[in-house]
Amino acid sequence: MRFVEYGDAHETMYLRFANKVGRASLARQFSYYGASDSTVLRRHILIDDGADPPAVIGAVTTKVQDYVLAGQTIRVAVATYPIGLGVVEPKYAMAGVLIFRKLLESYPLNILGTAPPETNTVAKLCSMLGWRLSPVPYLFMPRRIAPLVAKQLATRPALAAMARLAGQLGLLVPFEAVLHRRARRPAVKPEIDRVAGFDAELDGWWSAYAEEIGFGLTRDSRQMNAMFPASVGAFERLVFRRSGRIVGFAVLLIPKPEEARKALGANVVTLVEFCALDAHLEDAAAALAQRLWRQKLDAVLVNHSHGKTVEALQAVGFVPRPTNMYLAVSPTLQARLDAAGVGLSEMVITRADGDGPIGLGVDL
C-alpha cells in the first residue's frame, strides 16, 4: 500500500473511492480559501496496489497553519475528512488506522475537529490511537421562538403550523423580550465596525491577544483574510474598537435565509469567530449580542473552547447545549500542551479550526 500526495493522475481512482464513501469527499479541497503563503493545503491518499485495478482506499486533507503555544509559534496540521473505505467495505477495515499512522509520520503536531466519539468513526479511531478527545462547548442564542419551535415540531405539521402562526401574530413577543432583558448590557459600549477585510491594525491586536491565551490559531490579518476571503459573501467581519484601537473581532457566517431554512430548518447564523482582549471581553460580547438581537434571524450558534469567552457569551444570552464538536489532539502535540500546562479552557478553538464553511453544513 502507498500513502501519496494526491495529483491529477489519481483523479479517476479517487473519484471511484469518493463515490463509495460519500459526497463530501468529492468537494474541491478548500476552494473558498483566499491566497495565502501561511496556509498550506494538501490531500493525501492511500492506494491498494494489490487491487485490480489499483484502488484508493483512504484519503485525508490537511491544512497546515501557524498556531501559538505558550507564546511560541509552531506549525500545526489540521486534518479534515480523514476517511477509509472500511466504512463500506469490511476488507478495508484497517484503512482508517493506516491513514492516521501515515498522517502522524508526516505531521506529528496535529488536531482535528470531529463529532462525538459515541457515534463517529473518526473519533473512535482517534481515541484508539492515543489522541486526546475533548468536547468543545456549544452555545445557542435563541432570537425568535416560533421558528425554533416549529423546527422541533417538524414531524408534527399541524403543531408546527400553529407555532408559526403564533409567531406571525406576535403572541411570543413577550417571551422573546424576557430573553432580551436577561442579557447583560455593555458597561462601556465599544464601537463595532463592519470591515471588508483585515489589515495591519488586526496584527497589533493579535500581538497582545497571543499573550493572553495558551494555544490557538494565529489570528493575524494574513491568516484571517485567507480563512474568510471576500469571495465568500456570506461572511460578515466585525471589529470592536475602544478609543480608536481594535480590542477584538468577530466573524459571522450569515447564509441566505432561504438556504439556512432549507439546511437547518430555521434562519440560523453561525458565530464562527469571536475573540477579544480580556479587559474588553465582557463589553464586546454584550455589544455583539445587542447587534445580533437587532438582526432578522432566528438563532445564533457558536462552538468556542476559551473559558473566559464562553462565560462572557453565556452572560449575554447564549445557553449551553450538548456539544456537536470534539477536539482531537495528536499524542505529540498533547505532550507539548501538557508540558506548557495548557488545558482546553486556555485554548481558542472554534469552527474556524476545522474545514471552514463545508464543516458548517452550509452550501456556499
What keywords describe this structure?
single chain, 364 residues, alpha+beta, Aminopeptidase, 2 domains, nine-stranded mixed sheet, 13 helices
Mind explaining what this structure looks like?
The chain has 364 residues and is an alpha+beta fold. It has two domains: 2-135, Gcn5-related N-acetyltransferase (GNAT) (Aminopeptidase, 3-Layer(aba) Sandwich); 138-322, 3-Layer(aba) Sandwich (Aminopeptidase). Helix content is 34%, strand content 28%. It has 13 helices and 16 strands. It has helices spanning 11-21, 95-106, 121-128, 145-152, 157-168, 173-182, 200-209, 221-227, 257-264, 281-294, 307-315, 331-339, 356-359, and strands at residues 2-5, 40-48, 55-69, 72-84, 110-114, 132-135, 138-142, 191-195, 215-217, 235-242, 245-253, 268-276, 299-303, 319-321, 326-329, 347-348. The strands form two sheets. Strands 1, 2, 3, 4, 5, 6, 9, 15 and 16 form a nine-stranded mixed β-sheet that branches. α10 links the parallel β12 and β13 (299-303). α10 packs across α11. It is globular, with a radius of gyration of 22 Å. The model is unreliable at 357-364 (pLDDT under 50).
Bin the helical content: 25-40%
What is the H/E string? Answer: EHEEEHEHEEHHHEHEHEEHEHEHEEHEH
Q: What's the architecture of the largest domain, going by CATH?
A: 3-Layer(aba) Sandwich
| Uncertain runs | 357-364
Q: How many β-strands, per DSSP?
A: 16
Mean pLDDT: 82
Q: Decide which structural class fits the backbone.
A: alpha+beta
User: Measured on Cα atoms, how large is the radius of gyration?
Assistant: 22 Å
CATH homology group of the largest domain: Gcn5-related N-acetyltransferase (GNAT)
Shape: globular
Distance between the termini: 36 Å
- Name of the CATH first level of the largest domain: Alpha Beta
User: How large is the share of residues in beta strands?
Assistant: 25-35%
CATH T-level fold name of the largest domain: Aminopeptidase
As for the number of domains, it is 2
**Number of helices, counting only DSSP H or I runs of 4 residues or more:** 13
Main sheet summary: 9 strands, mixed
